[in-house]
Amino acid sequence: MRANFHTLLRLATGFALVAPNVSAPAQELLKREVAASEVRELNATIELSFGHVSLKRGTTDKIAVIEYTKPKESESDLQFHYSASGGIGSLVIRSEEEEGFWESSEKNDRQWTIELTDRIPVLLRFELGAGDGELDLTGLQLRALNISAGASSIRLDCNEPNRIRAESIEIESGVSKLTAQNLCNINFDRMAFSGGVGSYRLDFGGKLKRNATVTIEVGLGAVTVSVPEDVPARIKHDDSWFSSFDLDHHFLKKSKGVYETSEFASAKQRLVVSIESGLGSVKVRQR
Description:
This protein is mostly beta strands. The chain has one helix spanning about 1-15; strands spanning about 25-35, 40-55, 60-70, 80-85, 90-95, 110-115, 120-135, 140-155, 165-175, 175-180, 190-195, 200-205, 210-220, 220-225, 235-240, 245, 250-255, 260, 270-275, 280-285. It has a 20-stranded mixed β-sheet that branches. The longest helix is centred in the N-terminal third of the chain and has 12 residues, at about 1-15. The protein is globular, with a radius of gyration of 22 Å. The chain starts with a helix and ends with a strand.
């Protein structure tokens, strides 16, 4: 916001503004670990106000490893809790929102690295208010996935098929940018995506092991859906006078608002994608 203000002021006055040479603040690293135990499943809740977040697969001898880097002089806003009961582990990682953090230059100095075990099934709930997140789900045994992004940029990938069935995926993205790759590798039954004002790319690459249904709702945003040519797919779109819908020629029209790939009718595993858009734009591509 300040950079934009300076740019506008420079253009208006004809004078360049030079920022003072301020050295970066010293950083402090906080680390937390949870040793492996006899739990058979993990419920992981991660709620972060802002920062740079990297989440990935860890090791079998740790339930979780969390590293948090922050400016040394700032107070720690890390909340960490783990408990186990009835064979279920419960992990909660939170950062408290600081007053006026939208104007704070320190918000970009916070770095989160989170590793979760690949030994047991994980039910993952991830929320990021502002910042950017790199979620590499490769190797995790995902039972369910819930992602909520505010004014943030999220990249999600899964480069190997999930070893277990994921019951559902839910993704909510607000004023943000979200890119999701190889979604079929998560091995889900149901997926729901809701987008507000942003740019979204949903790629259903990977191995389709079961019948899967997807619902996509977009307000003012732009969404691009990519389907590999070896994934039998049906696209259903609720036409609106106010939205833009662009479908490539690989999908054959079956009825009003319904399009299919040529092998859909005879396939054993099928992907069905239902799309609703308000004032946004939708592109569907086969690759």
